[in-house]
Amino acid sequence: MTFGVSDRFRAAYEESHLSVVEGGVYAPDGTLITTLEFDRGAQNSVSIDVTAANRRSCSIAVVPDDVLLPITPTSPLAPVNEIRLSRGIQFDDGTSELVPLGIFGIQSSVEVASPAGPTIAIAGIDRSKRLDVNLTRGLSFAAGTGFDTVFTSLANASGVTYDTFFDPDVAATTTPALVFHAGDNIWQNIQTAASSLGCWAYFDELGVFTVIPVPDLDEQLSPSWTYARGAQAMFDETARTLALEDGSQKAYSHAVVESQVHGTGTPLRSDAYDDDPASPTYYLGPFGDRPIFDGDVSAFITTQAQCDRAAAALLRRNYGLLERVTMRAAPNPALTGGDVVSITDPETDTDAAYLSESWTLSLFAVGGPSTITFRSRQLH
User: What's the predicted TM-score (pTM) here?
Assistant: First the structure.
């Protein structure tokens, strides 16, 4: 999932390096309207959070000019247009390698007057926000329709067509008969349908509508990045937390998904258990049998295999102790939400693989290091 960068980029990131940032305002068809000159003394950042319905957002400050002003419903900063941002590394030979940080629909633009000079503060949210709208007319799909068709049709109902990337299993899995009504929220239904497949649905850094399986750390996935103490450590501060509850999240030992297959009298049910005796949430141990149910996905499930996959993904997100590692690290534009990283820090007894969960990446040095939260499940 990490954005593909060269070995040269990786090597430069681990040392002192010069960053380079580019941004522009684009029309919905992808035509560049104008490039942006940033107010480098202000906070300019991109935030990523895999737990949020809208994964990426930005907050930037730019220097006003005759193209950007005045701010009107027909100006370049009108909400129909988009901001594209990139951050990268400039090498010693003067060449650079840029990494896209996202395509953001403009949510607000505010002209600010200050003793330091005028600026325009712009807030943006990735393209998923454009799908956070209600259906104008109902949509229906016959049983046996591929999930890729359902996702694409729901997205296109917003009136805008996007590039897509779906995991092959998404296209290979078919739906029961589905009916969506006028007034149903498009993005909410897409999220629920993705959960029924054990998947995430989001817009990536290139603005591509993506549906892929939630990474499973139990599969020993190769880490995209390694953070370790040493002469070239890319972080300077860590904190590690273990808890049964953390905010809205709790620990469970048993996940249940049920569905009634449309057109038949056949009920489906899948029970996934934490059956590892060494786990702190072992369902036959002192923790007990604590089930979590997901009834929202039932309308999208048509086979026992899909039901089993949804229950397994639900358990994966909710068993074991909640573990989070928070660190201050050099801003890494190539890191994306859900990347598997290896973290070794003897000072906090941290030595495992984690998923990148949430952080704010500063575009310029004035923002300082990124505070990144990684999450996992502590099973032993």
Answer: 0.87
